[in-house]
Every structure is written in C-alpha cells, then in structure tokens.
Amino acid sequence: MLRRIFFVLNLWIVTVYYSWKSMKVDPVTSTPEEYDRWGLAWGRAAVKLSGIKIEADMGDVDPTGHYVFICNHQSNLDIPVLFDILKGNRIRFVAKKSLFDIPIYGKALAHSGHICVDRENRRAAMKSLNEAVEAAKGGISPVIFPEGTRNLNLEDLMEFKVGGMIIALKSGLPVVPIVMTNTGLIMGKGQLVIDNRPVVRVKALPIINPSDYTLKDREKFKDDLRKKMSAAYRELLAQG
After folding, report:
1. Strand, coil or helix: what is 54?
2. Structural domain boundaries, residue 94
3. With the CA atoms of 137, 139, 143 and 146 taken in that order, what torsion angle do they form, in degrees rounded to the nearest 10?
4. Coil, strand, or helix at residue 233?
5. How far apart (Å, rounded) are the C-alpha atoms in residues 162 and 189?
6. Strands 54-57 and 115-117
7. Binning pLDDT at 50, 70 and 90, where does residue 3 land?
8. Domains of the chain: total
9. Which of 11, 51, 71, 225 could bridge to 196 as Cys pair (CB 3.0-4.6 Å)?
10. pLDDT, tens digit, for every residue of 18-45?
C-alpha cells in the first residue's frame, strides 16, 4: 500500500538523481553503453519501484536490433516499461516540447539524445523530424507515440499523427508496431496513487518493411498502421 501511495514522490526523486547522473556523461567521448547507462538504470528503477508485473511478447524482434518502434500511449509508465523491454535496442523517445521544459529532467532528456518536437511551430517540428531521422540513421532506434499524447480512452486507440510515419519512412528502418495495455489503469494521466495490480501486457506486431510504402503513402501508412494496432490492442485488452 505504501508503495502505491508514495510511488509518484519516489519516482520524482529517482528521476532527478538519474537525470543528474546522465548529464555527467560526455556524449562525444563516451561509449554507447556509457551513454545509454543512466536512462536504462532509470527505467529499471521506475519499474521496480512501481511493483508492476510485465508480460511481453516481442515476436521476431531482435533484442539488439535497429528499428523504429511505434507504440500506443496511456501513461507516464509507458516510458520506463519500454526502456525495460527494449533495453538492448538503443532507444530514444520522440517527445513533446513541454517535457524538455521541465527543470533538470528536460535538460537530461536533451543531453541523452531524446528528440524534442514542438507541435506549435511547424518549421521547428519539421526540423525535429529530420533530427530524428538522422539519429535513426546514426544507430538510434526512435520510439514514437503516434497518438501524440496520453490516451484517456482505454477502450481504443486515438487517431494517429503523421509525423511518426515520416520518421519511419525516411529512416528506412524496419518498423515495429507495439501495443500495450493496462498502464492507463495503473497510473492514468493526473493520477497520484498507482494501482499496480493489473498486469502490463505488451505485444509486438509483425515487423513492417519500410519499402512497403513510399513517403507519398504516409497517410495510407498511418491509417493502415492504426487499423492493425487498434485490432491488436483490443485483442490484448480482452486478456485482462
């Protein structure tokens, strides 16, 4: 019970600590392992503090492979869960600008190579998408939440935004759609006390070859992907 009540406070303490540690790492002179170390440590710590149980079916995904990951989004817990599951894939999140404005944490996000998207500024947003593509070509596996924000309707997925499709298609990397359930039940938007009883279920859908679509097909890619992910999400949701 105490874990459920004090999780948010403990998470912030842990977040500040690991943010500070990550900013001590020189991204130029460090090895990939050193550069990734503190983000992964934060993910492990957050999952352990929450006491949640995760059941993940990653299908044919190579645990050290290079991909673009596209996942639905319900909770702040989604990020540590994905860090934990994709710990060998060198992931970086494509995230909204407001997260980068948070003191200490936001600076750590930028320093660690996560990609800021300013949706209020079209020119800045396009620049961010291109930065994400370059990061992907440089060995990073971008993680994209195509709904754009945390979904409050846990029965289905929100409409997708096209920016993530552009990153996926321009990078030329295999695309891994991922659906995740129950994080919104455990810790929904604005929730200060968690309920860690539901099992977090994660499922990777079949890997998509980027050559199946062209950049001109990005709207079709977006619609096809949402349809596939929505159907898989409802199936996973039925498992409880």
Report:
1. strand
2. 2-237
3. 10
4. helix
5. 23
6. unpaired
7. low
8. 1
9. 51
10. 999 999 999 999 999 999 999 999 999 9
Query: In a 3-state reduction of DSSP, which class is residue 183?
Result: helix
Residue type at 236? L
Q: In 3D, which of 81, 58, 77, 72 has the Cα closest to residue 237? A: 72
The per-residue pLDDT for 193 is: 86
The per-residue pLDDT for 97 is 85
CATH number of the domain encompassing residue 173: 3.40.1130.10
| Core vs surface per residue 81-94: b (16+ CB within 10 A) or e | bbbbbbbebbbbbb
Helix (H, G, I), strand (E, B) or coil at 75: coil
**Helix ranges, 112-199 (H):** 122-137, 163-171, 183-186
What type of residue is 6?
A: F
Q: Which two tokens stand for residue 179?
A: 């659906």
CB distance 194 to 8 below 8 Å: yes
Kindly state the tokens that stand for 132.
């994400």
pLDDT above 80: residue 1: no
